[in-house]
Amino acid sequence: MSIRVEKVDLPGIGTRHDVVTKSGRRIGIVSHRTGERELAIFDVHDPDASSDSIVLTDGEASALADVLGASVMLSQLLDIGEHAAGLATEQLVLPASSPFAGGVLGDTKARTRTSTSIVAIVRDSRVIPSPTPDTRLESGDTIIAVGTRSGLDALARLLNNGPG
Length: 164
Prior knowledge:
The chain has about 160 residues and is α+β, with helices and mostly antiparallel strands. It has helices at about 60-80, 80-85, 110-115, 150-160, and strands spanning about 5-10, 15-20, 25-30, 35-40, 50-55, 90-95, 115-125, 125-130, 140-145.
């Protein structure tokens, strides 16, 4: 899939990068020389005219990038099952009643007990890719796992009830 990104130099201002969507809509990010950035939405009927713009602080730009990045990563992970026979991905929410809530991922021994791999944890809008055994688990975390159907079912039982 080809994505069209256009770079436009804005003399005296900075640079604008436009993403042209599949439907033909244009979204721009203006990076000012001052370090300020702005999200620009272009008019449907006139792709050279901005219909709206939003100035973003560093924190807002970072949060937007995190949310978009997390969304793309999850989408790619969920597509794994379509390309690898016998493998599936699943999103499991860690309940507050889980014996592992407040502990670390290594305590679950999930890979050994279920033959699944926990490939990411989503906490609020933040993605923790490739979590280590020392990664803390919190109630409400979304666990992204890859494995067979039976392994993922076993992981769900483990996260909900513990090893017993």
